[in-house]
């Protein structure tokens, strides 16, 4: 009667079918994605950014390192489960300089994900028509091979893959 019409109905909850594993929908690869290594942030004033994370937020902050091959100065901010990479232009042809021209106050530049086999990743991603921004991996800030995937092929995000 009236009582059953006044009681709210239980919400419908959707769950993944237990008969099919979620991973069955992912094609097998010769390489695997690993953990998020860092999120890179372009900053117009590296000293101010370092001070924010170190002095205001209390994070452990690395020394500034110049990476001329990439046209950047880098600083790493240690977090419990990952890092932030602060990027500042090094030289007039720096990709960070052009980013900061469009984004005067800075902002997120890229994400970096570890892979177990960067060469296999490159081969397979090229077959899948994902553009890679260099012909060969370059040595990144951690001394390991890295590649960058075109943001237009990654839903607007510049993705860096780093050999684990």
TrEMBL record:
It catalyses: (R)-methylmalonyl-CoA = (S)-methylmalonyl-CoA. Residues 35-164 form the VOC domain. It holds the Pfam family Glyoxalase_4. Keywords: Cobalt, Isomerase, Metal-binding. One of its GO terms (biological process) is L-methylmalonyl-CoA metabolic process. GO terms for cellular component: mitochondrion. Its EC number is 5.1.99.1. GO terms for molecular function: metal ion binding; methylmalonyl-CoA epimerase activity. Methylmalonyl-CoA epimerase involved in propionyl-CoA metabolism. Belongs to the methylmalonyl-CoA epimerase family. This is Methylmalonyl-CoA epimerase, mitochondrial. The gene is Mcee.
């Amino acid at each position: 009667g009236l009582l059953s019409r006044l009681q709210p109905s239980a919400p419908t909850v959707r769950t993944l079918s237990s008969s099919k594993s979620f991973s069955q929908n992912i094609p097998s690869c010769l390489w695997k994605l690993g953990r998020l290594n860092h999120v890179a942030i372009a900053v117009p004033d590296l000293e101010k950014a370092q001070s924010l994370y170190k002095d205001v937020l209390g994070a452990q902050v690395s020394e500034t390192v110049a990476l001329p091959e990439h046209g950047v100065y880098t600083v790493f901010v240690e977090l419990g489960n990952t890092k932030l990479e602060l990027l500042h232009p090094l030289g007039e042809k720096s990709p960070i300089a052009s980013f900061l021209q469009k984004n005067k106050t800075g902002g997120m530049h890229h994400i970096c994900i570890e892979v177990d086999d960067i060469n296999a990743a490159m081969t397979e991603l090229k077959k899948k028509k994902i553009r890679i921004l260099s012909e060969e991996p370059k040595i990144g800030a951690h001394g390991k091979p890295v590649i960058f995937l075109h943001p237009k092929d990654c839903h607007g995000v510049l993705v860096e893959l780093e050999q684990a």
